[in-house]
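task queued by scheduler; priority normal; single chain, no ligands, no partner chains; default sampling; output format set to structure tokens
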Amino acid sequence: MTQFDGIVLLDKPEGPTTAKCGREIARYLGNKVGHAGTLDPLATGLVILLIGRATKISRYLSGLDKTYTGRIFLGKKTDTGDSEGKIISEKPIEISEEKIREIAPRMIGSHEQRPPAYSAVKHKGKALYKYARQGIKVEVEPRTVSVDKFRIISVDSHGIAFEAEVSKGTYIRALAERFGEIAGCGAHLSELRRTTIGSFSVENALSFEKILLLAQKCELKNESITMSEALGHLPEIAVDAEEAKRIAFGKLIDLDRIEINENGLFRITAENELIAIARKTGDSKRHYKYERVLITPEEIEN
């Protein structure tokens, strides 16, 4: 087994959960495997796998915008919002293709969206889908999500093929149901594929089988992305060995060599390796705080 810290892009197949894929890979790596954003078993496509210490940077990747392609089946509404659920209503599709295409612009913009009853969002420490399976209805607060793009690719007798660009936390199942409500016939999500997360593309991802094979051969590190590369959307400050040592002990250093972006986050690297993530809190050279320190004093000493 070869342990390493880094990121691997998975093209998840239909069927297994994201967590199950991670557990299988972890068995061969002998290391922790997490992910920055899950996919339902029905869905396929891009998952960012976090290996070893990279699990600590999940929050800085899970918030990236995402792109999906998929299909919305018109005329049938299910209890889960997708094709895995039971049909709870069925209506004829009495709307023209022209009117269907006119719905697309109405999907774009900010929306208040409640997480579906059959989702992993937790209420009082318990996933919503567990309540739903027991027939218990739970009211959860809506969240504001953003749909930056919604494009209809094609229309047929059963529904539409689409592409959507959305913000963190957007449930595409809920978008499908909203589309059906506007169309007046109900709908559910019948296919879903995630194609991008931020600047990452499924075109550069490896199949589940390929990742398992490379993990067994102790060659997966060769296909991995470093933590610093994965956080390329954050400004970077490179420090020398002495400064890295101070950071390992949680001490602040003078930082006056970077343009910080609007959310104040930046990454700190030493010899091209990510050692910390920090947030600017003011204009002084030391007006910042560490959110994650990824290097230990022992590593510096060695």
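post-processing summary
- The mean pLDDT is 88.
- The chain has nine helices and 18 strands.
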